[in-house]
Write a structure and sequence with these properties.
With 223 residues, the chain is mainly α. The protein has one domain: MFS general substrate transporter like domains (Growth Hormone, Chain: A), CATH 1.20.1250.20. The protein is built from nine helices and no strands.
C-alpha cells in the first residue's frame, strides 16, 4: 500500500508539473515577502521570531554553557542540568498545548508566552545559584513551546494557500538564519559583561519581541 501511494503521488505531482511551470526563485521569495508585508498576522509573528531568535539563541547556546562552566563552576554536568531544565520545561509546555483544544485570544497568548521566556532568561541572568538558574530556565522552556505553537498557528492560518510554502520558508529563515548573528553578538557581549550579561540581555531582547507583538492591534485583537 505504501508503494502504491508513493507511485500515485508521483503521478499526481508529475501531472501538476506539466500544467504549471516553476517560478524563478527570486519571484518566489518576493511573493513571500509581499505577503508578510501586507498581512500583519503573517509579518508581525515572523518579525517577532526574528527579534526572539537574536536574543534567545546566543543566550541559550553561548551564555548558558559559559555561565555553568566559568561563573558557577559546575562543569559539564552543570551545562547538562541547565539545558536539561530548559528541555524539561519545553516538554511540559508541548504536552500542555497538546491537551488544550483551543486558545482564547491566541495573539495575546503568543505574546505572553514569549514574555515568559524573556522573564525566565532575565531571572537566570540575575541568579547566582545553579538550581535557581535551572528553575528559571524550566519556566522559559514552558513559554518556548507555547509561543512556538501559537505563533506558527497564526502564520499558517492567515497565510494565503498559494503562498503558504514561501511564507513558511521565511519562518524557517527567521528561526534559524539569524542564529550565527546571535552567537556573534553573544560573544561581543560576553567579552564585556560576562555570561550573566549575555543571558540577561538576551532575555531583554526576547521581552522586546513580546512587546513588539503587543504593539500590533491585529495581534491584540486576534480571537
Amino acid at each position: 500500500m505504501c508503494a502504491a501511494a508513493v507511485l500515485s503521488f508521483g503521478q499526481v505531482t508529475a501531472g501538476r508539473r506539466q500544467q504549471r511551470a516553476a517560478e524563478p526563485l527570486f519571484d518566489q521569495a518576493r511573493a513571500g515577502l509581499t505577503v508578510a508585508a501586507s498581512q500583519p498576522l503573517v509579518g508581525v509573528p515572523i518579525l517577532m521570531l526574528v527579534i526572539f531568535n537574536v536574543g534567545y539563541s546566543g543566550a541559550t547556546y553561548v551564555g548558558l554553557p559559559a555561565l555553568a562552566r566559568l561563573e558557577l563552576g559546575a562543569g559539564a554536568q552543570g551545562v547538562g542540568l541547565l539545558l536539561g531544565s530548559l528541555g524539561a520545561g519545553a516538554l511540559v509546555g508541548a504536552v500542555t498545548m497538546l491537551l488544550i483544544s483551543s486558545i482564547p485570544r491566541v495573539g495575546c497568548f503568543a505574546c505572553l508566552a514569549i514574555a515568559t521566556v524573556g522573564l525566565g532568561l532575565v531571572g537566570a541572568g540575575m541568579a547566582h545559584s545553579l538550581w535557581t538558574v535551572a528553575t528559571c530556565l524550566a519556566v522559559a522552556g514552558l513559554g518556548i513551546s507555547c509561543a512556538a505553537v501559537a505563533l506558527l498557528t497564526i502564520v499558517q492560518v492567515h497565510a494565503p494557500v498559494e503562498t503558504r510554502g514561501r511564507v513558511l520558508a521565511l519562518w524557517s529563515l527567521a528561526f534559524t538564519g539569524l542564529t550565527p548573528l546571535s552567537y556573534a553578538l553573544a560573544g561581543l557581549v560576553g567579552e564585556r559583561l560576562g555570561a550573566h550579561g549575555i543571558i540577561l540581555l538576551g532575555g531583554v531582547c526576547v521581552l522586546g519581541a513580546a512587546g513588539f507583538g503587543l504593539l500590533s492591534r491585529p495581534m491584540r485583537q486576534l480571537a
